# Entry
Amino acid sequence: MDLHSARMIGAGLATMGLIGAGVGLGVLFSGYLQGALRNPSAAPGAQPMLFLGLALTEALGIFALVMAFIILFV
Amino acid sequence: MASIEPMKQFLVHEVVHIDPIVVPGLGAINMSITNSVLAMMIGALIIVALLGSAARGQLVPGRMQAFGEALYNLIDGTLVGPMIGDKGRPYIPFIFSIFMMVLVLNMMGLVFAIGNLGGQEWTFTATAQLAVTATLALITFLSVVVIGFVKNGFKFFKLFAPGGVPWPMLIFLVPIEIISFMVRPLTLSMRLFGNMIGGHVVMNIFATFVVMLAVLGMSGGIATLGWLGAGVSFFMVVALTALEFIVAFLQAFVFAALACVYLNDVVNLDSHGH
# Structure
């Protein structure tokens, strides 16, 4: 296997970190929606925290993406 | 045939050449105005023009003043107020500046997407440069550390030892807390950088698909199906552009929100659990 194909496979494997980010985002929004539909009046107050959680969860997936880019292009 | 070059849009090149300045101890520093610097200068000008026309102070706000008040209320009413409280008032200008800078730079990468004119790229996302986001994150991190020491003195280190924890646990907890504190600038810069670079790369790849599949479709026969793929890719580009506008705003908001969370840790060190 030459370096180029190894890079391609490595970058593909590196994006598997996004699985975790996807599961995390699903848990996050399902939790928010359950809470928001049971008590709609409290929903706006939880929104900043929702976006914060979204950012923190998404960052982990983004790290995997950045790793893939580094493997591919650096 | 068009080729996929998704990283080309992030290349930094000189626009105005200025001779390097030799700084003792650091070596020659390239002072040229690059497209990255140009984008940030234009961004700063846009912010000054926007907020300059918004700062009117009339009792019944005009259009621009209402816009400025809405922006201010976003930072004061949904971030600083609920997250830090009254003690956070002095830091509103800092949070607001960071938010506006990130927001305008993110938006500029999308709005000024004129493309490739005369061999020159006219669209540039300064927040897709790790150097820019790392600088913003380091400013935030160092401000938090300095404010923490100024406000709390050496009680600042209580940040690493949460209260109400049995002491044997502290042996494990303190290193974890220190590491999680130290990686903050890394995660802060990587999040913005990764989101911006990821979004623009995906947009670029789908935009290239439109051209590639359309060229394929012109060759006739079964390859005519390429037009279908080109159409699908085109609608993907439109949808992704809309998504990127949301992401551009959300990332600016999140950057400001995390700056608030980090400031809250040191400003209200005594009053919550630590």
